[in-house]
Write a structure and sequence with these properties.
heterodimer, A: Rossmann fold, three-stranded antiparallel β-sheet, B: mainly alpha, 0% strand, globular, binds adenosine-5'-triphosphate, binds magnesium ion
């Protein structure tokens, strides 16, 4: 298993339970999506998997393994994780070209090789000509592409994505979904993809995990048996897509409804 | 383009107008209007006339270079000291909470009020002025560094950590660039503080420098000389701040605001 969570519960300051008793396994090379209402602990769960939670404010029980190793049995570099954040998290003081080399620089890869790799991926992502722009000088879609390139550049085995396209407009989002599909179909890597957009989850993933409202539990797991290679655009019009969307929405709808009721 | 030119033109026109008016009400242009006594407000043309003798005596150059040296050495030391302490305290958790009240109280002291005690400590030479300049700059930089570290974007920290970055990587890619941006954003303020420190230090006791010369001229009721030195100080300060602005815009060109505006 690339990622394995066994009865994971996460509490903030010992009182607020954010994630409750979550068990999930993601096989090597599998594309899994997590959907759930806002505040149900999706980001918290990803952060726990990436071992980024501050133990001073947050307690994690249960066991989380990356490639069979618990958090004390591996270094962050061994885990070889990639993480694409909702906000692109590019370094504002570096150009896109420098930003995309970050992981390679951390791994001590020589300048020549770093540059060649970054340029190649930048061209692939349609960012050629913008290498020397700073993040604030390009559009949100381009920043998110650069952020994706930065993650792909050091070839992590497992990639966590937290609503990576959430801040984009509908068109840009679809284009990037199609590109992500293409990349994954060419080189399968384990992807754990958090989104609040059910259609996005169905179009991309092999499996969709539905989480309940806070404290987040696994409410349902749906296999998406649509064959790859998928066409992100054509798929949305298909009967099979509509059927899946209706089925999963049944499970999700209650959580949204209850979430709004408890918030009110 | 034409907009910026017309703005530059209008700005210049305003400055010229101020000087013309000033000249006119202090007995200039043969109009015989003297609204303000020349003992209080010197005529600009006569103040500028002082420039010749001041320069020829060799004192102008000496005063300028003295004040510049004091301000610049104070500035550089203040930046280094402030950044070092700010970084040190931020990294030594626990210590910062202990030291903070002391620094805050020192900072709330009007900085130039310490000038008289610096004189016996560092003497009449440039050291006491450097010390005052340092003292004024130090706190600006220290607090900016400290704030800069506290406001480091946690997402960026996470991004570096998840890639397997060490503490050194974090410092190099995230913390230091973030801190530098705060320090450079304070560069303009620091430059004028450094100059203020140097000039006020010279008021209290010195043997050269623009502040010293100004103080002497004022004591001798040499209004023309006083206004001349004030004008020189103004040009001097504007030039330094302008340079600081350029340095800042160049170093912070990655920032949305750094490329905009004046
Ligand atoms: N630093 C924190 N301290 C205390 N509680 C927190 C903290 N971070 C998150 N929480 C709580 O944990 C819960 C889950 O938050 P999380 O950010 O994981 O939700 P999410 O599912 O990612 O939501 P969204 O879809 O809006 O991004 C929230 O209800 C929040 O109140
Ligand atoms: Mg979230």
């Amino acid at each position: 298993m690339s990622v394995s969570c066994d009865r994971v519960t996460i509490r903030f300051r010992a009182s607020v339970e954010a994630v409750s008793d979550v068990s999930l396994d993601v096989a090597r090379g599998e594309f899994v999506a997590i959907v759930g209402p806002s505040g149900c602990g999706k980001s918290t769960l990803l952060n726990a998997i990436a071992d980024l939670l501050d133990p001073a404010i947050c307690e994690v029980t249960g066991r989380i393994e990356i490639d069979g190793a618990g958090r004390r049995e591996r270094t962050r570099r061994d885990a070889n994780l990639g993480y694409v954040f909702q906000r692109d998290a590019l370094l504002p003081w570096q150009t896109l070209l420098e930003n995309t080399q970050l992981g390679l620089a951390i791994r001590g890869i020589g300048k020549e090789r770093r540059l060649a790799r970054a340029r190649e991926l930048i061209a692939m992502a349609g960012l050629a000509g913008f290498e020397h722009y700073y993040p604030h000088q390009v559009s949100g879609g381009m920043r998110q592409r650069a952020s994706l390139v930065r993650t792909l550049a050091y070839e992590p085995q497992t990639i966590l994505m937290d609503e990576p396209f959430g801040a984009l407009d509908a068109q840009n989002r679809m284009v990037l979904q199609a590109e992500l599909l293409k990349i994954w179909q060419e080189t399968p890597r384990t992807i754990l993809f958090v989104t609040h957009d059910l259609a996005e989850a169905i179009v991309l993933a092999q499996r969709v995990i539905v989480m309940s409202r806070r404290p987040g539990r696994v409410k349902a797991v749906h296999a998406i048996d649509l064959p790859y290679p998928r066409d992100a655009f054509a798929l949305r019009g298909s009967a099979e897509f509509a059927r899946l969307e209706t089925t999963i929405w049944q499970a999700l709808r209650d959580e949204f409804r209850l979430a709004t009721e408890t918030n009110a | 383009m034409s907009r910026t030119w017309s703005l530059a033109l209008r700005r210049t026109a305003l400055i010229v107008a101020i000087f013309v008016l000033w000249e006119a009400v202090t007995g200039g242009f043969g109009l015989g209007i003297v609204l303000v006594s020349p003992a209080i407000l010197a005529r600009p043309s006569s103040a500028l006339g002082e420039l010749g003798p001041y320069a020829q005596s060799g004192l102008l150059w000496r005063d300028l270079s003295t004040t510049l040296t004091e301000a610049m050495v104070g500035l550089v030391l203040g930046i280094i000291g402030g950044a070092a302490l700010g970084l040190g305290l931020a990294y030594l958790r626990g210590t910062s909470e202990v030291v903070e009240p002391v620094l805050v109280s020192l900072n709330s002291l009007p900085r130039i009020a310490v000038a008289p005690i610096l004189l016996p400590l560092f003497g009449l030479g440039i050291a006491s002025k450097i010390a005052l300049s340092f003292f004024t700059v130090f706190f600006v930089v220290f607090f900016n560094t400290y704030l800069g570290i506290r406001s480091v974007d946690p997402e960026l920290v996470k991004a570096v950590q998840v890639m397997g970055g060490s503490r050194a990587h974090l410092a190099r890619f995230v913390v230091l660039p973030s801190v530098f941006s705060w320090i450079f954003a304070a560069l303009r303020t620091s430059v004028s503080f450094a100059l203020t420190g140097a000039v006020v230090g010279e008021f209290v006791g010195a043997s050269a420098g623009l502040g010293y010369r100004l103080n002497i001229a004022a004591g001798l009721l040499d209004t023309k000389r006083v206004y001349l030195i004030l004008l020189i100080l103004m040009v001097f300060a504007v030039t330094l701040v302008e340079i600081a602005k350029r340095v800042e815009a160049r170093l912070l060109r990655w920032r949305p605001s750094a490329t905009l505006g004046t």
